[in-house]
Design brief:
about 325 residues, alpha/beta, Arc Repressor Mutant, subunit A, five-stranded mixed sheet, about 45% helix
């Protein structure tokens, strides 16, 4: 049994049993991948994959049982390599951060700037995606740190640490009735206009939907996007009223729009930073985490990694600071 055999099995499952793609990912040949898989099956005495002719079409029942073990072995091998690197090349290496667009665009830049100033020999790799994609990257060992508002706390294999609270704002052109009437902003008034806001599952969208549902109102969402800058662009074009994260509004950059405080309309949101519970974190990963969220010292992170997933959020969310 060797790691190349294990990687061949893992990649076959990840890439929909397409051995051509597996071979490309592993920088080898398709016959080589087939041979690695067959040799592992012979050594284990079981078939891991369902076959139709020479094609793999799925996992057998033993394969479904064995695959999580293979995943753990490969992740622990990565942990071993990182532990060795921490001693052999202290202060240098690679930090892989996965974040939603809003976090990458508005929350991460100051932390990245400050981290780079103290760790010039660490290369940063930033990947953007949905909260579900970020969780997948963490679980598969393709990212060291994940940052998002929604979904990360739903995975027991991840430790999702609260970083900061934030609220939504309503953005409109300066001459819009919501900005000029002098009347208080309410959900009922907001529901009278077309709305441009985030895709479901992004940037606190669930709290927006929950607020309207609780008020028995049906908002007319004419456009949804992952990116606050896209939302603001279409608000400027007159497509509708925007609902964005308050941190995404910059008075200087967005001088053609007005931001209306909506914290009384929608529940606060919590941005979380997640790591895989079983991952080996190099020293500079801990330092980046604290740079991004100062309360998340190394001892806090390690304590949370040893707690039950259900208690992590409850014990750390209490009295957490609100974003400026």
């Amino acid at each position: 049994m060797n790691f190349q055999q294990l990687r061949s099995v893992r990649e076959a499952q990840r890439r929909g049993f397409n051995l051509t793609e597996v071979a490309q990912a592993l920088h080898t040949s398709q016959p080589g991948v087939s041979r690695q898989i067959r040799e592992l099956e012979e050594e284990l005495g079981i078939e891991l994959f369902v076959r139709v002719g020479k094609r793999l079409t799925g996992l057998t029942e033993p394969g479904e049982q064995v695959l999580p073990v293979i995943e753990r072995l490969l992740l622990e091998a990565e942990n071993l390599k990182r532990a060795a690197d921490d001693f052999a090349s202290a202060g240098s290496g690679r930090l892989r951060i996965a974040a939603t667009h809003s976090q990458a665009r508005y929350a991460l830049p100051p932390a990245v700037r400050d981290f780079r100033a103290h760790h010039p020999d660490v290369s940063l790799h930033l990947q953007q995606g949905s909260p579900q994609q970020i969780a997948k990257l963490l679980l598969e060992g393709e990212a060291d740190v994940g940052i998002a508002t929604e979904a990360l706390a739903q995975y027991p294999e991840l430790v999702a640490l609260p970083c900061y609270r934030w609220t939504h704002a309503v953005v409109v052109p300066p001459d819009h009735p919501l900005a000029t009437s002098g009347e208080p902003l309410t959900l009922a008034r907001l529901a009278q206009f077309p709305i441009v806001t985030y895709e479901p599952g992004y940037t606190g969208r669930s709290h927006i939907d929950e607020a309207f549902a609780a008020a028995q109102l049906q908002p007319h969402v004419v456009l949804s996007a992952m990116d606050a800058d896209v939302i603001k662009t279409y608000v400027e074009l007159g497509l509708g009223v925007g609902i964005v994260a308050a941190i995404a509004f910059d008075e200087e950059r967005d001088r053609h729009l007005r931001a209306l405080d909506a914290r009384h309309l929608f529940q606060d949101n919590m941005t979380r930073l997640a790591v895989r519970r079983s991952a080996f974190l190099r020293d500079y990963v801990y330092e980046f985490i604290q740079t991004f969220a100062s309360p998340l010292r190394r001892d806090v992170v390690d304590a949370a990694r040893h707690q039950a997933a259900e208690s992590t959020s409850a014990t750390l969310t209490t009295a957490w600071p609100r974003a400026a």
